[in-house]
Amino acid sequence: MTNYGGKAPLSYNKYLKVEQLIELQKRLALPEKHDELLFIIIHQTFELWFKQILHELDATIEYIKERRIMRAIRNLRRICEIEKILVAQFRILETMTPHDFLLFREELKPASGFQSTQFREIEFLSGLKDERLMRFFDEEFAIERLKKRFGDETLHDIYFAFLKERGFAIDTFESRVEAVVKIIKDIEKHAEEFELEEALIEHDEIVSKWRYHHIKMVERTVGGKIGTGGSEGVGYLQTTLAKRFYPEFWEARTQLEIE
Predict the structure, then answer these.
(1) For site-directed labelling of 245, which of 67, 133, 193, 238 has its Cα 20 to 30 A away?
(2) Is residue 161 predicted with pLDDT exceeding 70?
(3) Can you tell me the distance from the alpha carbon of 171 to that of 34, in angstroms, rounded to the nearest whole number?
(4) Domain ranges of the chain
């Protein structure tokens, strides 16, 4: 790789900080349990991809504000491809037997996937804000990030502001649903609005699939046990399946009729 400023040439390992990266997987169980490394790497990989998704969501919002709609759609397609990988990763975790997970599960308490700051940021930025969630975070970096995201504009906000500029009424839930119905009925006339809506609903759908596969993976591994963070485990996770970033998009499908 390129020699920068007369220093030693940049290498693959230096650029990617591989030496530091492969030292970040610290197992807690003593004696060490084989599958704990897999568990850590899978979840660290989730967090790295979450970082990229947030990077793309931030850019997407700016593109929509600038009315660079095709660029925004392209970004959302990338996000969806990343999210498909995240869904597929659960298959790797499912190669771990329930017994092998129990060998180190106690070491994880009281930590919980519920505490993933970046996943909550993705929810907030996409349009699903719940201020109550912030009380479950006590680390300063997490609180500051979530507070900022809670105050930021969301993709939901930006999309419907875009529709308002295009002449659609958006003041109520019902009017927003009606706007989406009109768009779906005439995709030639409203091509940009439709393609952007389709990219957003795909993002919403794949996150729902991620939630579902997470639930089934947890149930397959620990059954109905209480979560390591003290939640009801699978029982709690099942309550998250109804969450939607863009409920107007889904309701529009219900309201759509042939005239």
Answers:
(1) 67
(2) yes
(3) 55
(4) 32-255
